[in-house]
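Consider this today:
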Amino acid sequence: MDEFASIRLWTEGRQAKQWQQQRGVVLGIGDDAALLDPAVPIDGLTGPRQIVAAVDTMVETVHFNAATMMDEDIGYKALAANVSDIAAMGGIPLQALVSVSVPRSFGPERVRRLYDGLYACAERYGVAVAGGDTTSSPQHLVVAVTVLGAVEAGRALRRTGSRPGDAVFVTGPVGMSAAGLHALLAQPHAGEGAVPAAACGEAAAALVQAHRRPAPSVRAGRLLLERGTCTALNDVSDGLASEAWEIAEASGLRLVLRERDLPLAGSLAAYARDAGVQPLEWMLYGGEDYAMIGTAAAEDAKPLQELFRREGLPFFIIGETEAGEPGVELIAEASGWSGSKAVRRIPLAKRGYNHFA
């Protein structure tokens, strides 16, 4: 099967032309380049707008392997990672360009399953797949996705706006993806193809799902932008501590997190207990959760939490910001033998997932 026949197999008939036009695609897959209309009306966007662009790459043996991801999951997660970046700016994702480098070990049907997952994510978040590129690879699968979105001009949420005295929040539980990866790699037959979630046990099923099919927080990003009191925002792709450091350095202050307020999912607590692992390590340094960490005006933190509750979305107030040298600290409480509690402020290392460490 030649390149163009393969592209037709993977993409033809996936999205209606009229629907793509509603997402700003004038000319999609099938020509030298896509044509996009940056001014097409989009629900929720009014007035002048700016383009938001994000690109992310997934490489076999670096981001996934045969044990951790099914083919459909690879495609889903490759797009979801970019959708999360758009969400962290308060934007609406609109179009995607997909580049796939395919080794001989991946036949056309496996790549079609990859596209099944990618288009499933595109349907969920309203993303029109407008084009891309396909090449051969000498050994490993590489999937690179670029997503374009839109946000009201001058209103994009950034990492640079935190002020001393702001509340620090996170829009979902953290550590679940890392725990899911741990559960998958712990299976005795992890080298013999994708491990079924059921094989990891009941406690780990939700964690495996969180690793394979993350849920970007697009609605949360829009709520925060519309509210107008969010001062900084970052998606949790490389670990909560790492993303907190990015806000601290960009805004020139300290983030102080409270251990007791970090959201610990029940499934994570149960799996960590069974595995004999301290869940805090996954929560702080695991990454790929795609919740968002941010700061907001302290006086609006509780009203924001109530707004999210009414929308059926999680929102946890986990700390505050302070003036001082940029950094991140954790307030930890340890119960003593007398029943009293010792409170410690622990500097958090500037680490998370780093490709070049």
